């Protein structure tokens, strides 16, 4: 791995932890992830990649700071709400290094499947906010992210990538296992399970859900301000939220932006009829044992 100022970054290969593919830097630092300790009051935002993670991070930070836009401009989102399994090369700091310097209670991000969530989160009854996005839009968003992210393995052509996704041969493994894992535990643990499609359809309603889950009391004015500040267009224009502070040595912005379209149903611009039929058949098999109400179209109810 070359330094942060280099134009070239070596891609991290996939390795496995207990059968789940992860980027090699996650595997190499697994002892630190396993040894991380949550404090009572910590809030964990958990998602499969490209499910609206940054969106909910910004909402939560605004809730914690009572809608104070300036406070939420204090640093990029990945510094304000560190990513527990991110271990970038120097000069960047790892998520755990950032978290260890923060006073609790902290807000923390993870993409880990539920079986890898540190037991200290459950022991301390930490609030966990999980965001899920329908599989078809997830694979499209992940594909474009893998095209622009120089750390991730080469996605290859779309018609091959869709099969990698279906087989869980991407960082953080199977989408199906991930969304089902948290769904099956949501009533047994302190988990708020949200859907990307609901955030798109009625952002205010979902913001209020998060406020209540976090045991906060905010005025209508503050809630309205949070909703306004976290619309897709405002988030996309916010350098402290849109990841444009990440250097070109890591993200190739000529291939995609980090925040791309933020739509429900964009998969229709990528899937052929044959691919959609194949994906639907596979989806039905994988999700037969779990009735999660996903919507792949903004008009579905």
Automatic annotation (TrEMBL):
One annotated GO molecular function: sulfotransferase activity
GO biological process: catecholamine metabolic process; xenobiotic metabolic process
EC annotation from Swiss-Prot or TrEMBL: 2.8.2.-
Subcellular localization: Cytoplasm
Domain (Sulfotransferase): residue spans on this chain: 41-290
Entry-linked Pfam families: Sulfotransfer_1
GO cellular component: cytoplasm
Record flagged with keyword Lipid metabolism: no
First-level EC class: transferase
Key words, A-Z: Catecholamine metabolism, Cytoplasm, Transferase
Classification via InterPro entries: P-loop_NTPase, Sulfotransferase_dom
Main location: cytoplasm
Coiled coil region boundaries: none
UniProt entry tagged with the keyword Cytoplasm: yes
Homology family: Belongs to the sulfotransferase 1 family.
Protein name, entry field: Sulfotransferase
Organism of origin: Erpetoichthys calabaricus (Rope fish)
Name of encoding gene: LOC114656350
């Amino acid at each position: 791995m070359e330094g942060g100022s280099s134009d070239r970054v070596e891609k991290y290969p996939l390795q496995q932890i207990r059968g789940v593919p992860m980027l090699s830097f996650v595997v190499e630092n697994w002892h630190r992830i396993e040894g991380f300790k949550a404090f009572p009051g910590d809030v964990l935002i958990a998602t499969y990649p490209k499910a609206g993670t940054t969106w909910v991070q910004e909402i939560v930070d605004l809730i914690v700071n009572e809608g104070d836009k300036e406070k939420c401009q204090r640093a990029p989102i990945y510094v304000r709400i560190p990513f527990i399994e991110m271990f970038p090369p120097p000069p960047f700091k790892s998520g755990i290094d950032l978290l260890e310097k923060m006073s609790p209670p902290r807000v923390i991000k993870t993409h880990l499947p539920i079986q890898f969530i540190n037991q200290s989160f459950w022991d301390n009854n930490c609030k966990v906010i999980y965001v899920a996005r329908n599989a078809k839009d997830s694979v499209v968003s992940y594909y474009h992210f893998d095209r622009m992210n120089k750390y991730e393995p080469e996605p290859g052509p779309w018609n091959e990538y869709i099969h990698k996704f279906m087989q869980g041969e991407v960082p953080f493994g199977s989408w199906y296992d991930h969304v089902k894992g948290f769904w099956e535990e949501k009533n047994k643990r302190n988990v708020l399970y949200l859907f990307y499609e609901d955030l798109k359809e009625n952002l205010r309603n979902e913001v209020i859900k998060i406020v209540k889950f976090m045991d906060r009391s905010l005025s209508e004015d503050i809630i309205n301000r949070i909703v306004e500040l976290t619309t897709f267009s405002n988030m996309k224009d916010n350098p402290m939220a849109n990841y444009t502070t990440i250097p070109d040595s890591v993200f190739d912005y000529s291939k995609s932006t980090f925040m791309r379209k933020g739509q429900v149903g964009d998969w229709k611009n990528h899937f052929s009829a044959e691919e959609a039929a194949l994906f639907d058949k596979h989806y039905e098999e994988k999700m037969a044992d779990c009735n999660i109400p996903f919507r792949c179209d903004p008009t579905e109810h």
